[in-house]
Structure prediction request, 238 residues.
Amino acid sequence: MEILTPLAFRILYEDNHLVIVNKLPSEIVQGDKTGDVPLSDTVKAYIAKKYKKPGNVFLGVVHRVDRPVSGAVVFARTSKALARTNEMLKKKEIQKKYWAVIKNKPPEKKGKLVHFLKKNEKQNKSYVVKKGTPGSKNSELFYKVLCQSQRYYLLEVVLITGRHHQARAQLSAMGCPVKGDLKYGFERGNKDASIHLHAREITLLHPVKKTKINITAPVPDDLLWKSFENSYKPDANL
Prediction:
């Protein structure tokens, strides 16, 4: 239980069809060339142990979150749930809200960002390019300032499209790179290699029960994150 207990405390929602986990910024969602144990394998082990399931445990990855990013990640426990949540993603019926901490003041308190992004596979990075550039994709998001401290601003980011590194690239293009995100222009990295981008809230209809699910993921155990989480008042007007 020593290995599985920390994950149990990070389960945000669980039933026979879905499990939603609060991902740590150091975790990868699926296996990659690093060979590190992915969150999907950790969740499978948790399910196998909790429900005493012999053999392979089915677990479908509904969506991914970048390694240095934290927050809510949805997994499907049945093939039916996976097929239906994949369809919901295509139809943009799953809403995801991110929290981002930035240092530079945004040009407006709230706004919509529209860019064309092109992914560089070798660098694993997306660049803002001119409209019509071969391989580029239209990328749109909404942002608004939720609150601020002496040095930083807390933004809410709602992705309209789902592109590679979209929030990171578009906020950087606005002149407001995410704290700790060296890849997209922040001045220095965080000590734990995380960035201050967090998948804060996810809303969807249950793929089988058809009931509304709204999940809020607590922020990482970090002084700046906790300060913003404690000071933010949803009804406050800036």
